[in-house]
Amino acid sequence: MTWFRWIIPVFAGFACLVGFAKFRRWANPVSVLVLWWCLWLFVANFSPTGVYVPSPRTQILVLVMLYSLVLGSFFAVGTLKGETGSVPDYNRRLRKRWRAVFWIAVGSMPVVAYYFVKAIGIFLSEGFLGYRGAVFGDMDRPSVLFGSNYVELLYTIVLSPLIFLALLAGVVYYLVFRDRWMLGVSLLLTSMDAIMRLGRFNFYYLLFFLFLSILLLMQRSRSRDGIGLFFAGALRNARGAIVTLVVAMAIILMVLNTVRMEEAGTVTGVLGKFAIEYHTGGFVLFDDSLNHPASELNRHMSYGRSLFGGLDTLAVLVLRRMDSGLQSISNVNGPLMREFQVVGYDSNGYPIMANAFYTVLYTMYQDGREFAFFVVPFLFGYFLSNRYLDWLRGGDIGTLMLLNVLLFAGFFSLFMSPVEGVIFWVSLALLFLINRVWLPVRFVSAGGEP
């Protein structure tokens, strides 16, 4: 299998050349996504920490997925047209709309604060390991934090997407308009939610939205119209605060990783576990299910329910009134994915255990086998590239936020499958309602300030 060690870099280079030919920019969303997946697939082939090398079948499926993504992007042409509105007017109205949405976020703060305080009390009495094992509920045992599966589900459906979008909007509107109030509210909500669930991904989301928004704003600012000049000035004014924010988040992540140091033992162990194993173990988890004929993945197909897993969960909540035995795909997959599997052996001969991080590869194969690896990435690449072209030509903030969410799905699918969760789909629906339905407008590429 050593030939993958050279074919992956060659393929990544090919994808970057195609992306540059299409977008005239090296750092375009499609090329960056391909490089992200190729990087960790390449690392997985060297097994630096002892994680098994994925089988050729799994690696070929990953490359097919990425090829289809690139192919779909090549057919994109953008959709920016019309003469009934303008980007600057839209951006100003959208800012007012999101400030109103943030008052809803402020109204939810007492609820989040209640569970945050409750979590601190449980953490102090139960300790880290006891709390971490009990905070996430399942069908047989509700979360010790929420006390009820229904309460936890309600929190996930209503508050989690709100916190997620508040973080995204807070970052975007701070970079563009220096809106400290929106950023402050979102950071407070995000921090409480992350701490009470002992999670670090919320802070990764912040850094991801920050860097991606800066990149996209920089690219749009190179167009020397009124919008581009405004974005360029906004980024210059925010430089100091950006550095401060990045340093603060890096310190928080270091503290959280130090708290969890006991899992890995040493700094080297932490780097190996959180930098290597977390990014490559998902290939092996999927590979193990893929190559075992008796696995749940090979015995059953979901025919689209997994890719729309978040919507499937909401639909099952309604349909269960008529059929109490009906289960959503997430409820079926959840118990299987929570079971720890051996994904390799470290230098001392101890097994490396992993769970949950089955990647979006599992989702696609469960829905449509190999066929899904051609169709789904092609459609995603086409839609993502259309939005990116619209952003470069227009510069409306609604498209910037949508690009953030789509690329969030592409990047973090290396770990888990966002499309199987409620947060992704509810967030997309809210973005559409807030940015397009409540403020209907068709754009012309016009100069002026946002």
Task: Describe the structure in your own words.
This protein has 450 residues and is mainly α. The protein has one domain (1-80, 93-431). Helices cover 71% and strands 2% of the residues. The protein is built from 16 helices and 2 strands. The chain has a two-stranded antiparallel sheet. Helix 14 packs antiparallel against helix 15 (397-412). The protein starts with a helix and ends in a 13-residue tail after the last helix. The mean pLDDT is 85.
What's the arrangement of strands in the largest beta sheet? 1-2
Strand content: under 5%
Q: How many structural units, i.e. domains?
A: 1
Q: What is the averaged pLDDT score?
A: 85
Features:
single chain; 450 residues; two-stranded antiparallel sheet; 2 strands
